[in-house]
């Protein structure tokens, strides 16, 4: 068993949200919906959307720079950049390579992780293990998305949900107090079809047909995903807490992927978690997939909701299906 001071800790956080707001009232003018319906069914009031010409790495690089400043680390000292995204700048090279250049992290290795909305914690677990093993000292873990680029703004069942943004964390060796206690990853490939972006890959390369059928946009069976998310997150959180020999009461703050406030609320009710222990910002940003947890972590920290020594539970669920969780001692 390693000493706590060898373990990875989050030593810096940063986030960036584009300035342009897409409100429910804007959406009322675009599709057959109402602000009242959206708020009642999702909790979302507005989302942030990038201007034309902005790519995921642009958001990621700003969030990363802020996280490095917060950790008081020079970009030159970063060993590895891992970006979780489903909206990379290009299929290859990786978004992390674009970020590496933009922030000047000359000696860093760089690659991306794809585990949809659960991806940030997947990336966090990779960074955690590089630090815990002693192989690296400083890893930048980013969650960044430009979901507006793959959202069909003629489809009312999906376009109300998604927004753009980026969050980043710096991982370094912790101390006895602050470290990542555990990370859990899971997947079920039997449900690849409930939530996906069908075209553009090797299975369905871009063609006139895929464009005409609007297959380059996110598709999902919302109700199915909704039910799977609540069941899965409830089990995941229970397992995460018990396998660390903790109880729900030991956790000071729960940061769940911000996909739908009703999913967060129903999961918390099943686990009998009081409302004041739940962080949410979905009302401001919608579902930002990989970016939602690092953005929430940064906001929670700035709002003073993460006190030294607190246990914070992160949990996410998304396309794949994939799920992931982590307990962090702040
Ligand atoms: O990040 C992880 C992945 N994503 C998610 O976790 C999303 C999970 N799913 C959801 O959040 C919800 O399923 C939605 C918010 C997408 C939809 O809410 P719902 O309560 O599951 O609604 P529904 O799909 O069962 O639709 C209920 C009704 C339907 O009308 P009928 O058939 O009852 O007449 C829909 O056509 O609401 C209608 N509807 C809308 N009405 C107004 C669907 N979208 C809209 C809309 N505005 N935007």
What does this 3D model show about the protein?
This protein has 330 residues and is α/β, with parallel strands linked by helices. It has two domains: 2-175, Thiolase/Chalcone synthase (Peroxisomal Thiolase, Chain A, domain 1), CATH 3.40.47; 181-329, 3-Layer(aba) Sandwich (Peroxisomal Thiolase, Chain A, domain 1). It is built from eleven helices and 14 strands. The chain has a five-stranded mixed sheet, with helices on both faces. It is globular, with a radius of gyration of 19 Å. The two termini are 20 Å apart. The model has no long low-confidence stretch (mean pLDDT 96). The structure holds oxa(dethia)-CoA. The site of oxa(dethia)-CoA has 19 residues, from helix 2, helix 6 and helix 8.
Helix content: 25-40%
- The arrangement of helices and strands along the chain is EEHHEHEHEHEHEEEHEHEHEHHEE
What are the bound molecules?
oxa(dethia)-CoA
How many distinct domains? 2
Radius of gyration over all CA atoms, rounded? 19 Å
What's the end-to-end separation, in Å?
Answer: 20 Å
Essential attributes:
5-stranded mixed beta sheet, 14 strands, binds oxa(dethia)-CoA, alpha/beta, Peroxisomal Thiolase, Chain A, domain 1, 11 helices
In short:
32% of the residues lie in helices and 24% in strands. The chain has eleven helices and 14 strands.
């Amino acid at each position: 068993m390693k000493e706590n001071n060898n373990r990875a800790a989050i030593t810096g956080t940063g986030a960036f949200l584009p300035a342009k707001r897409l409100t429910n009232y804007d959406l009322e003018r675009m599709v057959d919906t109402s602000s009242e319906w959206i708020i009642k069914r999702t909790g979302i009031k507005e989302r942030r959307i990038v201007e034309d010409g902005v790519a995921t790495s642009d958001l990621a690089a700003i969030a990363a720079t802020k996280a490095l400043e917060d950790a008081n680390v020079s970009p030159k000292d970063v060993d590895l950049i891992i970006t979780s995204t489903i909206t990379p700048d290009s299929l290859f090279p990786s978004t992390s390579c674009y970020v590496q250049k933009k922030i000047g992290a000359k000696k860093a290795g760089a690659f991306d992780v794809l585990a949809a909305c659960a991806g940030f914690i997947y990336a966090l677990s990779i960074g955690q293990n590089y630090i815990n093993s002693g192989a690296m000292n400083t890893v930048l873990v980013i969650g960044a998305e430009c979901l507006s680029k793959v959202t069909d703004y003629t489809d009312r069942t999906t376009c109300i949900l998604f927004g753009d943004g980026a969050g980043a964390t710096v991982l370094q060796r912790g101390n006895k107090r602050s470290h990542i206690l555990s990370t859990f990853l899971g997947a079920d490939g039997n449900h690849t079809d409930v939530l996906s972006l069908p075209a553009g890959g090797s299975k369905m390369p871009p063609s006139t047909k895929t464009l005409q059928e609007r297959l380059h946009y996110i598709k999902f069976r919302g109700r199915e995903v909704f039910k799977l998310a609540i069941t899965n997150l409830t089990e995941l959180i229970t397992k995460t807490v018990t396998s660390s020999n903790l109880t729900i009461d030991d956790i000071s703050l729960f940061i769940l992927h911000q996909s739908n406030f009703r999913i967060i609320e129903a999961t918390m009710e099943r686990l009998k978690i009081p409302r004041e222990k739940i962080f949410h910002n979905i009302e401001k940003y919608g579902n930002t997939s990989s970016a939602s947890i690092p953005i929430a972590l940064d906001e929670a920290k700035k709002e003073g909701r993460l006190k030294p020594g607190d246990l914070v539970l992160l949990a996410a669920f998304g396309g794949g299906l994939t799920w992931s969780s982590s307990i962090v001692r702040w």
